[in-house]
């Protein structure tokens, strides 16, 4: 019985290994086929364009592609060819084959009118080659040393980006080297977010949005890193690719100096919208770093209520609890149930990094207790908030500070109370805001940069 089971296991294992080997061989064959069909864009530029008789009719100047469509791999829509002193456009359907370093046409008829760029057209050599790209999978900013084209069904598409140093060296060598693809470090085009609106004299309608979905899957801290690494024009394009709320989350994770530069570079209307979307404490920090006239330029472009709110926070000295607090508070009444409070919390999910406790208020709006989320999480749904605060009263009053409390003193209270935030209250114990532990550290340790706990945890 044991021998039979052993033989069965060995046969099954052998079959799986054979299947795996066949699969690897097929993949290797497919990979060789793909590699053999790759055409280097760098090697194609300047290459000859021949007619049906094999006679040279011009030289490749650039390759036109549609990068912003729904296709995962952008299709080539035509070529810009130098014919004599003219730059003519050849539609993709006039091309018989794109070889390594040359192009063969299927027609002898050419439209010799001077090429004029149309809305939506992207010139791969001029707009993308040697320009910054975002590698969404690797979460890094890179530069395109070469682009690779390949035939797909009845058309030619852009399939990959080469970012390796050897490729740059290849392009500096003899022409016979330039047309040889070296796809050892090729990144799949689907993982790339290109930026090209600033790179040419083309129309402003050229909007590159192919990788918006992939960008939206990145965490705010990752987007912040990308924004800090991109050049001025590219990061403004990246900001425009994102929804304002997502962009604001990324801005909150940036180094202060980088954020200051970004807000100065942006159009005032867009910068104002981004600051408006930020959490109040983060928005105030960003505005403080700007000159007074720059700050006012953004505030006047915000809704009056939001601008007034930020002005009141800016009036507090920077080294006080009022100057570092967020005014985003979740409050509850004693007669509510724990389930009802949890429903209120669920509606504030987008602000989860700013909320670590619930302020329970009496009928006059005065503080009864500051209930940590853990205490709320372990309580029964039907439990009344009054019962929960009554049980917590045995541990003493909630830790609070006043808006004029120095941050050094607030830090000491934070450590003594062993909590991650403190409520800021007025003289009548009415909550004004909350000061978070990371905001205390950001202010007390400016030489270390922004010490966002949220970013560390991510």
From TrEMBL:
> Which InterPro entries does this entry report, sorted A to Z?
CBS_dom, CBS_dom_sf, Mg_transptr_MgtE_intracell_dom, MgtE_N_sf, MgtE_transporter, PRC_barrel-like_sf
An example of a Pfam family matching this protein is MgtE_N
- List, for all copies, the residue spans of the domain called CBS: 392-451
Has keyword Cell division? no
Q: Where would you find the membrane-spanning parts of this chain? A: none
Reading the lineage from the top rank, the first entry is: Bacteria
Write the record's keywords in alphabetical order, separated by commas.
CBS domain
Q: What is this protein called?
A: CBS domain-containing protein
């Amino acid at each position: 019985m044991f021998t039979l089971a052993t033989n069965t296991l060995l046969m099954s294992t052998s079959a799986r290994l054979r299947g795996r080997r066949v699969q690897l061989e097929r993949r290797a064959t497919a990979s060789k086929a793909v590699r053999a069909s790759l055409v280097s864009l760098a090697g194609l530029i300047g290459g000859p364009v021949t007619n049906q008789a094999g006679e040279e009719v011009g030289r490749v100047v650039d390759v036109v592609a549609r990068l912003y469509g729904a296709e995962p791999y952008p299709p080539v829509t035509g070529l810009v060819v130098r014919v004599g002193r003219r730059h003519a456009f050849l539609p993709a359907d006039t091309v018989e084959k794109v070889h390594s370093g040359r192009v063969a046409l299927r027609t002898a008829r050419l439209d010799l009118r001077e090429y004029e760029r149309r809305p939506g057209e992207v010139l791969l050599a001029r707009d993308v080659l040697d320009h910054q790209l975002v590698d969404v999978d690797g979460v890094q900013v890179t530069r395109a040393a070469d682009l690779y084209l390949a035939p797909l069904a009845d058309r030619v598409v852009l399939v990959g980006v080469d970012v390796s140093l050897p490729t740059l060296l290849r392009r500096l060598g003899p022409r016979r080297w330039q047309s040889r693809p070296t796809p050892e470090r090729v990144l799949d085009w689907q993982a790339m977010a290109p930026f090209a609106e600033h790179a040419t004299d083309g129309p402003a309608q050229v909007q590159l949005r192919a990788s918006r979905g992939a960008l939206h899957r990145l965490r705010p801290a990752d987007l912040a890193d990308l924004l800090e690494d991109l050049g001025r024009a590219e990061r403004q394009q990246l900001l425009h690719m994102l929804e304002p709320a997502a962009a604001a989350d990324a801005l909150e994770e940036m180094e202060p100096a980088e954020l200051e530069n970004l807000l100065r570079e942006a159009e005032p209307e867009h910068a104002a919208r981004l600051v408006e979307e930020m959490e109040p404490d983060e928005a105030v920090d960003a505005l403080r770093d700007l000159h007074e006239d720059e700050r006012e330029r953004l505030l006047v472009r915000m809704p009056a209520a939001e601008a007034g709110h930020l002005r009141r926070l800016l009036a507090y000295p920077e080294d006080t609890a009022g100057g570092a607090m967020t005014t985003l508070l979740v409050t509850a009444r004693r007669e509510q149930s724990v389930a009802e409070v949890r429903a209120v919390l669920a509606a504030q999910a987008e602000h989860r990094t700013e909320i670590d406790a619930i302020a329970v208020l009496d009928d006059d709006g005065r503080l009864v207790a500051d209930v940590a989320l853990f205490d709320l999480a372990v309580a029964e749904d039907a439990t009344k908030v009054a019962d929960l605060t009554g049980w917590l009263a045995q541990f003493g009053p909630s830790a609070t500070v006043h808006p004029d409390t120095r941050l050094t003193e607030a830090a000491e209270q934070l450590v003594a109370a062993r909590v991650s935030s403190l409520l800021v209250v007025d003289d009548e114990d009415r909550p004004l805001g909350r000061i978070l532990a990371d905001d205390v550290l950001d202010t007390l340790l400016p030489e270390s940069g922004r010490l966002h706990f949220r970013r560390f945890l991510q």
